[in-house]
Amino acid sequence: MKSYKQVILVRQDLKLSKGKMSAQVAHASVDALLKSHKDIISEWHEQGMKKSVLKVKDEKELFEYKQKAEDAGLLTALVIDAGHTEIPAETKTCLGIGPDEESKIDKVTGRLKLA
Hints:
- By secondary structure, this protein is of the alpha+beta class.
- Strands 2-1-4-3 form a four-stranded mixed beta sheet, sandwiched between helices.
- It is globular.
């Protein structure tokens, strides 16, 4: 049986409050889920919906991982903030990847550290 997971990459240079970061991570998770195939969603759900929140240093690194994930055939969801609270409008905050096979995601994000 294949193991599934989702990862969310968060920019560290923005120095988001815990609440703001949590909201942005939730947006990334839901946005990526809504783009996912129902069979993958079902398998992931049955396995407990494993997810990891990982850190990237800045927007440049966020986009590097977005490209790597897409090149590997993984679904991505970029979160762009509306600018109502802590950060300016159009700030790219997070990237959701998956859910998908854990081994495929780990090939792309396996070296990143937990946020």
